[in-house]
Amino acid sequence: GAVVSQHPSWVICKSGTSVKIECRSLDFQATTMFWYRQFPKQSLMLMATSNEGSKATYEQGVEKDKFLINHASLTLSTLTVTSAHPEDSSFYICSARGLAGRHTGELFFGEGSRLTVL
Amino acid sequence: EDQVTQSPEALRLQEGESSSLNCSYTVSGLRGLFWYRQDPGKGPEFLFTLYSAGEEKEKERLKATLTKKESFLHITAPKPEDSATYLCAVRGGNNRKLIWGLGTSLAVNP
Q1: Between residues 32 and 51 of chain A, which touch chain B (CB distance below 8 Å)?
Q2: Contact map slice: A 83-112 vs B, CB within 8 A
Q3: CA-CA distances (angstroms) from residue B95 to A56, A92, A105, B29, B92?
Q4: Do A105 and B44 count as a contact with CB atoms less than 8 A apart?
Q5: Residues pairing with A97 in the sheet
Q6: Is B17:B106 a contact under the CB 8 Å cutoff?
Q7: B85 with B100: CB under 8 angstroms?
């Protein structure tokens, strides 16, 4: 299957600092990438949809000024958590949708990033 | 309202004991039902996509089936390495977003 790489896999930061998480599609081009947040024993919560070359579309209740998303190329999207607070501690996962071909419609996920804000 | 319900919430099996996981859904105009496997601290791993009732797909010890109301993930002679959370998601015609179930946590004892 297609490969999506996410980095870093875990990060610890101080309250008030900003953290950037990268998501790369390694063997295919992804015009659309998705950012999810997952709490323990809960399913995936879509935060925003990232489209290459345009502004991200945020889900209701997600602060766009706090969770900055940039999708500068067909293989890279970044999520920056600004002025992090302890309640931002969570597991963040990116995904990319396959384009035409055998991956059509399927989502491929990165390994996830565990953020802990002290 | 589009909805996905997975059952059971948790399942414990002995190695070799076959069983099935259920994913019931209500959606307007199904455009795909997806099964994923998620290991602790990892992102979900794609398993199957099903598009129409009657469709079946297999991969090693896993077999996914689909009806108009639900999907089953059958696990034949499971091994301890099959232990994971299995997630189901659907995409409907009115909404391009995936609707996720809460998952079934599977534990296979040796």
Answers
A1: 42-44, 46, 49
A2: 91, 93-95, 105-112
A3: 17, 23, 13, 10, 6
A4: no
A5: A107
A6: no
A7: no
Do the Cβ atoms of B5 and B65 come closer than 8 Å?
no
* Residue A3 pLDDT: 86
DSSP A66-81: TEEEEEEETTEEEEEE
Within an 8 Å CB–CB cutoff, is residue A76 touching chain B? Answer: no
Q: Are A107 and B46 a contacting pair at CB < 8 A? A: yes
Which residue type, as a one-letter code, is found at position A109?
A: F
Check A112 against B36: CB less than 8 A apart: no
Per-residue pLDDT of chain A (118 residues; tens, 9 = 90+): 668 999 999 999 999 999 999 999 888 788 889 999 998 878 899 999 998 888 899 999 999 999 999 988 888 999 999 999 999 999 999 998 866 555 556 788 999 999 999 9
Q: Check: CB of residue A50 under 8 Å from CB of residue A33.
A: yes
Characterize the bridge pairing of strands A113-117 and A10-13.
parallel
Residue B7's closest CA among B88, B62, B107, B77?
A: B88
- Give the residue numbers in B contacting A (CB under 8 Å), as ranges: 31-32, 34, 36, 41-46, 49, 87, 91, 97-98, 100-103
Expressed in percent and rounded to 5, the helix, strand and coil fractions of chain A are 5, 55, 45
Q: Is the peptide bond before B80 cis (omega within 30 degrees of 0)?
A: no
